[in-house]
Amino acid sequence: MSGPPSSGVVAVAGEALVDVVPAPANGYWELAPGGSPANVAVGLARLGVPARMLARIADDLLGRKLRGHLDRNGVDLSRVVAAKEPSSLAIVEIAEDGQAAYDFRISGTSDWQWTPDELVGALDGEGAEPVVAVHSGSLALTTPPGAEVLRGLLASARPTATVSYDPNCRPLLMGDPADVLRGVHEVLGVADVVKVSDEDLRWLVPGRSPGDVIAEWLELGPAVVAVTLGGDGVVAGTSAGLHTSRPGKKIDVVDTVGAGDSFSSALLSGLHRRGLLGADARVDLHRIDAATLDAVLDESVAAAAITCSRHGADPPTLADLGVG
């Protein structure tokens, strides 16, 4: 079940940081814009969805580069906070199979210092463009002191907007998985759309099958839960009882940086184009039919695969996906 395209903005809340990544040409290092939420915002904008970034970005050299990157990709920066703290860094290691591993330098940096006052009006509509969805996840929802503020933002968004969530676990920084899982369950209580990777689940709930987790998480409130399986595609379920799996795409993997974020962007873009975002569409989202769900998931798998075929977090456009 779907309707006319959603008219509205998708707001993305969380970190916009700098990735220190191996340079493919010479084996040295290069700086690249990153941060899971920022990658999702860029991915949405490239897919034609009005995207608003809710981030605290430093007014330093790296922060200005991050602002420039987001702005060039058409992301609305009107609600970005000019932070006094320095920019965060993620140091990326790429294995021979293209899998990415991360180390971080985030102590006292800008992304985590949210205060409630900084988010007043963050979800207000601009003219005729209401905020129809809010997405967050990863370190933004687990790193104090700002994590609780952003969790409050998601809860406050639910009466008017779809809430999208990606745990995007970073074991190096998130502490005890049992503690993190309690926080995940809290967010699932307000979330409508959930994307999680099988790698996340192996850390959060070792020994559990994706199907079992999907069934359990749907009981907590979401309309759709999707578990990405890397090169093997995705499995998903809905609150109405649909269960589906979609195959992966055969590609030559350059690296996996930003692949999950591209999946999330395409997932939200697909729902946006089909009129399934916003509180008014919540009932329709819960009743999404099999053909619509499969089509959205296929687009999301394709977006992640395209990103894996490129160096770094470089999400596709609608033209890249072949979607009109």
Describe this structure in words.
With 324 residues, the chain is of the alpha/beta class. It has one domain (9-321): 3-Layer(aba) Sandwich (UDP-N-acetylmuramoyl-L-alanine:D-glutamate ligase), CATH 3.40.1190. The protein has 11 helices and 14 strands. An 8-stranded mixed sheet has the order 4-1-9-10-11-12-13-14, sandwiched between helices. β13 (234-238) and β14 form a beta hairpin. α1 crosses α8 (259-273) and α8 (259-273) packs antiparallel against α10 (290-308). The relative contact order is 0.16.
Chain-wise SSE layout:
Elements: E1 9-13, E2 17-22, E3 29-34, H1 36-46, E4 51-54, E5 56-58, H2 61-72, E6 81-83, E7 89-94, E8 100-105, E9 131-137, H3 147-157, E10 162-166, H4 171-174, H5 177-188, E11 193-197, H6 198-204, H7 210-218, E12 224-228, E13 234-238, E14 243-246, H8 259-273, H9 282-286, H10 290-308, H11 318-321
Parallel strand pairs: 1-4, 1-9, 2-7, 5-6, 9-10, 10-11, 11-12
Antiparallel strand pairs: 2-3, 7-8, 12-13, 13-14
Structural class, please? alpha/beta
CATH fold description: UDP-N-acetylmuramoyl-L-alanine:D-glutamate ligase
Number of helical elements: 11
Which CATH top level class fits?
Alpha Beta
Q: What is the strand arrangement across the widest sheet?
A: 4-1-9-10-11-12-13-14
**Beta-sheet strand percentage?**
15-25%
